[in-house]
Write a structure and sequence with these properties.
Belongs to the IPP transferase family. With 297 residues, the chain is an alpha/beta fold. The protein is 51% helix and 11% strand. The strands form 2 sheets. It has a 6-stranded parallel β-sheet, with helices on both faces. The chain has a two-stranded parallel sheet with strand order 3-5.
C-alpha cells in the first residue's frame, strides 16, 4: 500500500516545522522515509529564508525539504506554477515509497500541492498595470466604486480596502472572464490527488501572539533586515515583496511587522477551521514530540 500524504497546516509561529521533524522521527522509527514539501507562497524564494521562516541548514540536515528556495527573488511566481512543481515532487516521492509531509500556512498553496486548481487565466500585463496605476493614483476606494458600477453584487461582497482582489477582479472583467465571487472560491476540496491526512494546528491566542512576537525578534536578531534590504537592492519581484514584513522591515518598522503577522495568523486560523476533514490539534503548551505521539501513536 503506497504511503499516505501527511499535510500540516497552521498559522505563522504555531510550530509546524517542529512538528514535521517530530513526525519524521516517528516515521523513521517505523522504517519509513519522510520528506517535507513546503506549501508556502513565499518560501519558494531564494534569499528570503529568514523572513519566510523557511527550513534552515540545520532543519534540512534533520529532514529533507523540497520546494524551498527554488525561485530567484527577482522572478514572479504563481500558485499555478507552484502546483505543477509540487505535484511532480509529491508524485515522485510516492513512487519511491517516500512519505511526503506537506507543510504550509498558505491556504491556496496547500490546496495547490494536494489537489487540482481551477484558476482563472492570466490577462494582458498592460491591463493589470493600468489598474495598478489607478490604484496608486486614486486608492482602493475608486476601484471599489468602479466595480460597484460594473457589478454591484460582486462589489458588495468585496472589501473596499482589498486592493489586490479589486485589481484582479477588474482586470478579469476587462479581459472578459468571470471573476471568482468572494466566499465562492473553493480553496479546499476533499478530492485530493492522493490519500491525504490533513492536520490543522491551533493555539491559544495569547500564546500564539507571544510566539509570533518572539519569532519576529529572533528574525531581527538573525539579520532579517539586511536580508530584506539585499532582496530589495537585487530587484525583488512584486510577488516576493508580498512576504509578511517585507515592506515594514524596509521602513524599519518592526512593531508593524509583528502586528501584521498577528492579523495574518488570525486569518489563517479562521480559514483552517472551515476545512472539511481537518484534524484540529491544540498545541498550546505542548511539545512537538507530544503532539507527534498523539498523531502517530
Amino acid at each position: 500500500m503506497p504511503p499516505t500524504v501527511l499535510a500540516i497546516f497552521g498559522p505563522t509561529g504555531v510550530g509546524k516545522t517542529a512538528l514535521a521533524h517530530a513526525l519524521a522521527d516517528r516515521l523513521r522509527a517505523r522504517g519509513e522515509r519522510p520528506v517535507a514539501v513546503s506549501a508556502d507562497a513565499l518560501q519558494v524564494y531564494a534569499g528570503l529564508e529568514l523572513l519566510t521562516g523557511a527550513a534552515d541548514a540545520a532543519d534540512r540536515a534533520r529532514l529533507e525539504h523540497r520546494m524551498v528556495g527554488v525561485v530567484p527573488v527577482t522572478e514572479t511566481f504563481s500558485a499555478g506554477a507552484y502546483a505543477e512543481q509540487a505535484h511532480a515532487e509529491i508524485d515522485a516521492l510516492l513512487d519511491d515509497g517516500v512519505t511526503p509531509i506537506v507543510v504550509g500556512g498558505t491556504g491556496l498553496y496547500l490546496r495547490a500541492a494536494l489537489a487540482e486548481l481551477d484558476l482563472r487565466p492570466a490577462v494582458d500585463p498592460a491591463v493589470r498595470e493600468r489598474w495598478t496605476a489607478r490604484l496608486r493614483a486614486d486608492g482602493p476606494g475608486a476601484l471599489h466604486a468602479e466595480l460597484a458600477r460594473r457589478d454591484s453584487e460582486l462589489a458588495a461582497r468585496t472589501a473596499p480596502a482589498d486592493a489586490h482582489r479589486l485589481v484582479r477582479t477588474l482586470e478579469l472583467l476587462d479581459a472578459g472572464h468571470v471573476p471568482p465571487r468572494p466566499g465562492d472560491a473553493q480553496l479546499w476540496t476533499t478530492d485530493t490527488r492522493h490519500p491525504t491526512r490533513l492536520i490543522g494546528l491551533t493555539m491559544d491566542r495569547a500564546a500564539l501572539d507571544a510566539a509570533i512576537d518572539a519569532r519576529v525578534d529572533a528574525m531581527v536578531a538573525a539579520g532579517v533586515e539586511a536580508e530584506v534590504r539585499a532582496a530589495d537592492a537585487a530587484g525583488a519581484s512584486d510577488t516576493a515583496r508580498k512576504a509578511l514584513g517585507f515592506r515594514e522591515l524596509l521602513a524599519g518598522d518592526v512593531p508593524a511587522m509583528k502586528q501584521g503577522t498577528r492579523r495574518y495568523a488570525r486569518r489563517q486560523l479562521t480559514w483552517m477551521r472551515k476545512l472539511p476533514a481537518v484534524e484540529l490539534v491544540d498545541v498550546t503548551g505542548r511539545s512537538a514530540e507530544d503532539v507527534a505521539a498523539q498523531l502517530l501513536p
